[in-house]
Automatic annotation (TrEMBL):
UniProt-recorded name of the protein: Adenine DNA glycosylase
Enzyme class: hydrolase
Catalytic activity: Hydrolyzes free adenine bases from 7,8-dihydro-8-oxoguanine:adenine mismatched double-stranded DNA, leaving an apurinic site
Co-factor requirement: [4Fe-4S] cluster
Amino acid sequence: MNFSRIILEWYEQNKRLLPWRRTKEPYRIWLSEIMLQQTRVAQGIPYYMKFVEAFPKVQDLAAASEEQVLKLWQGLGYYSRARNLHATAKIITEKYNGKFPDTYKELLQLKGIGDYTASAIASICFGRPEAVVDGNVYRVLARYYGIDLPINSSEGVLYFKELAKDIMDAKNIRDYNQGIMEFGALQCAPKNPDCGSCPLQKSCVAFATNSIDNLPVKIKKNKVRNRYFNYLVLVDENKQTLLQQRKGSGIWQNLYEFPLLESEKYIDQGEVAGNLKELVSLQEPSEIYLYNESKIVHKLSHQHLHTRFWIITFESNLENGIQIAELHKYPVPVLIADFIKTFKI
DNA sequence: AATCCGGGGTC
DNA sequence: GACCCAGGATT
């Protein structure tokens, strides 16, 4: 029995009943695929449920504000996905009359849809013979065929894509594509794969050469940048504070945060006071004190954010202030959300 | 071709 | 602490 046939039979026996597996509706498949980019299925499920309920149709998503979309996306990370999701919903609604295009090529033109997602939608929704290559597929193919070409080199990307096309089952592409990914997620897992019960074991090169733990090969380049964030939590006599929206490039684009004073290292109360006027032009504060007693190091893929929250009180009224009790309504990074949860003035 | 972009689970 | 996750966009 060949590779694709074994995958299909394994999938029939082992597939999970995921919320988006009961439909071929492009809107829902697209939504799930965007959410699952670099994201575990278990983490994505509750977000998928929330979005489907809040926005049953692509037109509903298009009609929402970006702030609403970001708020629902809060905590899932990679927020450009949410911004692109919203932009694409508008395009589909306005220029495609609410219907997704049904070819790889057209899908690829949409914001947030790259090679993987275009292939996934084209195959799952429309039965197009397009091979998906995600992290699971890289791992399964690298092990089964014993390929040590780095999966994140440009040569590797092309090689694995061609290989995936060569061995796919074009007639059963919908189940085959989902099957090989599911197989990678459950059977051929990154750590401790279940080779003992694997239906592909007899012909797996990595198993035969005892190189399961060495494949796939990935070039690593994880240089972490250390940054020092001082958040200025202004508080006035009316229990109001100030929030700003992050603009430009960089992390957390369009999400909200407190006025930020970034420094090269940890700074003290005196330096915070000295820099206060440049960020917010207002009267003299009555007191400034550090809120978090223990260190907060918020870790992103490429950055460690050494964070201090400074409470700065005023015996007057802040202009453009918002009620502290309303903070939870704004889309914010997890770092800020965690602070808001514990913040009691 | 390299780098950036989150947050959380797992070992 | 290191690795990975149903990747894509930018430089």
